[in-house]
Structure formats: structure tokens, C-alpha cells
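Sequence in, structure out. Go.
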Amino acid sequence: MRDPAFPHRHLLGIEGLTPAEINYLLDLSDRYVGVNRGPEKTSDALRGRTIVNLFFENSTRTRTSFELAAKRLGANVINMQVETSSVVKGETLIDTAVTLNAMHPDVLAVRHPDSGAVKLLADKVNCGVVNGGDGSHEHPTQALLDALTIRRRKGRLSGLLVAICGDVLHSRVARSNFLLLLTMGARVRIIAPRTLIPSGVDRLGVEVFTDMTAGLKDVDIVMMLRVQSERMRGSFIPSVREYFHFFGLDRAKLGQAKPDALIMHPGPMNRGTEIDSDVADDVERSVIREQVELGVAVRMAVLEVLANNASAHNAAGHNAAGHNAAADSRQGLPGRTGT
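Output:
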């Protein structure tokens, strides 16, 4: 049977998850942190299972994190190289899904440049699917690892004041994070130039600032975002130098936050654009390297739960054409690009 604490067959986004489901994944991830820091890091939790990494965008850290997580659980791992696959020969995303489904994988970890593409693929397969980032829509495992990092350092999420700063418009990380943080009872501010603030974002319950000094006042967490030049069509910032002057995190701006405020960044960092090296490397307050470490534990938890749920789903005789279970229907509706 599916795990009653997390009954979903896919993890397509944070949207639709309950606080109990989020806490369940964080608690399981927390246990894997201890495993990963011990001398024996591997288990046979997913022995005999197959995990496929299907990344339609370039990625090093996320794909490697998924691969390492799967291997530490004892799974067989296949990294599909999209640039050398049938996709570049004209195969559609649905054709790719049907082909992979015929090979009976247990979980697909998918990254795609288009919002909603991972949901489309998930509708065509019998296995579990985890969204490794789709366009500007969501990146759920990044939000979970960020939440785990905060919870381990601060002991809670509820009641904290979190500032998410920078290129919010193009950031799937921002969207997943403020969905999770608001669900868990945190207050969320976004700080960005007007050109990088999504339309209507204030209706989601976040506080909007266009000035770093005002926005960082008394915050508990400062989460910087990468400037995603590859997604920009037009001029969103006048220059890198001016952007850093007004919106890059340096020691002076950080001084507005609480003295024990944590510094976060999903990576890869553009030093001197989004963040100054002095604060990025602050051994007392920066948790950027810890985020990378905890990402493996979070993905171990997610892969284990989804693989087991997929096995239960298939044992019940479901197929890809008719799997519309209530537990899955709450997730995966693509948001507007840029939110």
C-alpha cells in the first residue's frame, strides 16, 4: 500500500502538500542526514529498483545529488544524456515518456525548461516522477532542502521571517520556497527590482519590497537567488555592477537583518552579482554548503517514498492512462511562467 503519511505517487511541486506531509519528508530526510555523516552511507532500501535521471537542461549539482541519493539507497541509476538521445532527433516528450515507461523504471527525476512539462510526462508513466525543476514553475526538492537546513539551524519554520531576494520573476526556487514557507507558518518577504517581481505575487501572502535596506530589516533568513540571465528576454537589469550595488548581499546590507540571520543561496552563486564573497563564506552564518549536503538526504527520502508508492500503485493494477487518484490530483498544476 502507499505510504499513508505521503500518499502521492509523484512529487511535482510543493503546491497541494499539507504541513503534515512536508514534515514527514523533512523528518525522514533528517534521519538520512545522520546516515550520510556516518561511516556506512549505503543501504539496500531501494535494492533492485531503477532510478532514471532525465534532465533536459544542463545541471551538475542537482543531477549529481539525485544520482548520489539513489546510489546510497542501493538503486540502479541511469543518467540519460538528452543531447545524445532521440529527443534531438525529433522525438516528442510524450514519445519519450511512453518509451521510458515500457522499460519499467521505478522513479524518474526530471528537469525541463518548460513549466508544466514534468506534469505532462508524469501523466504518461506508471512510475513515480519527481520534479527536478520545470521552467519557472517549481523545484520542490530545493525548497525541502532549504526548509530542512533552516529547521536544523533554527529548530522551527513557523514564525520565522524569511527574505527571498533577487530574480524572483524567473525563479522556480523562489516559488517553491514561498509556497512551502507560507504553508509551514513562516512570514515571507520578497525583495527585488520592480522588473523582477512577478505580477500579482502579493496576493499569495508574501510581503513585497524593492529596497534591500527596508526588506532585510529584522529578518531571520536571507535567501539570495541567482540572476537567471538565460531566461531573460530583454533588459531586466541595467548592469551587473548596478544590480549588485542595490540588490547584491554585502556586509552593510546584511547588517539590517538579525545578528544571527542565516545566509542561503541555491547555487550556483554569481559572486559579485548576487552576493559578496565575504558574506557567502561567513563560517558562522552562511549555510550554503550545508544546503548542498542536506540536498542528498532530502532526495534520498523523496526517492524512497516515491519508489515504494509506485510499487504499491502498480501492484494495485493501475496504468498510466487512468491513474487519476485523489492523492495525485492535488499536485502539479503548472503556474504561470515567471512566478
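Check: The first strand starts at residue 50 and ends at 55. Confidence is low (pLDDT under 50) at residues 321-327, 333-339.
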